[in-house]
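Protocol step 4 of 5: obtain the predicted structure for the target chain.
Materials: sequence only (see below). No template structures provided, no constraints applied. The aim of this step is simply to have a reference model before the mutagenesis design in step 5. Sequence pasted as it appears in the construct record:
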Amino acid sequence: MEEKQKLGGREKFAYGIGAVGKDMVYMLSASYVLYYYQDIMGVSAVAMGMILFIARIFDAFNDPIMGIVVAKTRTKWGKFRPWLFVGTVTNAIVLYLMFAAPPALTGSGLVAYAAVTYILWGVTYTMMDIPYWSVIPAFTKSGKERENLSALARSCAGVGSALITIITVLSVSALGNLAGGKTASEAERLGYRYFALLIAVLFMVFITITCLNIKEKSSVDMQTATVREMFGALFRNDQAMTMVVAIVMINTALYITSNLVIYFFKYDFSPEVWQSNYTLFNTFGGAFQILAMMVLFPLLRKFMNTLKLFYVSFSMAFAGYLVLLAITFSGSSNVYLLLIPAFLIMSAIGMLNVIITVFLANTVDYGEWKNYRRDESVIFSMQTFVVKLASGIAALLASVVIAAFHIRKDETDEVLHAIASSDRMGLRMCMTLIPIAALLIGLAVFKHHYILNEEKTQEIARELEKRKSSMTDKK
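Step 4 output (structure tokens):
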């Protein structure tokens, strides 16, 4: 087999920029599609929540099917890059259509449009996402080089997500006004349409850079897994199951916050200046998340192991939500106070996303040690699905909160007013207590079932090395 050359800066940049574009698209959908259809287009919140949740369940079957299709692909450009490019182009088109719902559509027609475009968006995103992560072994050496590139891509994905949380609302406002929206509602609708177009174009440019600069080897085999194999691997590996629960709970908390916080600013905290305050909150939150992954995590890692840092991160998240709850019930209208919980929550989420990737890798070694089989591709293929599942659960819960507390736009009044005080109290409590409950469940499961501390992982590594040496001697 031809030996792969050491990765250069160009390949690393090309792969990383693809992750930025990929997660810009994902975060735009995960955080704003519910708001777009419910608050701007007038679709029932519960109907949208059900659409988003069902689409994520559908992904449980779609992801492994796409993996099999990619694995069987044979072209002169390889098996991964053609699907990466085709999936990106189709996903970009569907993204634009999803945020460009015809204003004449109403009722069941609009619900059907939302359902079809969102499900198609999920299918085409999988078409691109599976080959994006699966291509890594095709142009890297095993070991540190592969691990470092994966870590770089995860960090770049975090940057893409954070950028969307920072720039979306003000960009939508500016584009809507440039497009000639005659009312605030029309300007917002047009703004999302053209912002989605802008992100779709950037996405295609970034992935094109990726496809042109990574040179995959056609001889690399891709392991694929059926739904049955994925869940079978989890049931055989209690540590992987523990991490899956933790990932679902952490991301459910994050996506509930991202889905509800826009309503908090628009209909509760600061209706008159909600766009600037929401953007300020997200700008600092996104910056804190990026800095936590790239600076705070490596810094704290010098003083404590990853397990202790995991608990520190959870403590920061709990403290952040409690501070947020206290500020909202204090009656304060000082938006700068909200930057305290933004720092605590988003820094914690940033570090947890890095730590979880490390712990998930540990469960692969544990599975090999316990079951004498290495389910690496199967376990890591679950990560994308469980994050999607978390976003679906969060969207469903958020939609119930929106409906229960009568959070909706007043079609007869262009000037925004705060919702009733009882509904404001309900929104504040759900926005903070539901994420706390999700994190508590994740923490309880992790604390009672996760056993892979540093001593245990080193013991497993030594045992696996002995097995490999023994097999080599027998040959």
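Step 4 remarks: The chain is about 80% helix and 0% strand. The CA atoms of residues 43 and 146 lie 44 Å apart.
Proceed to step 5.
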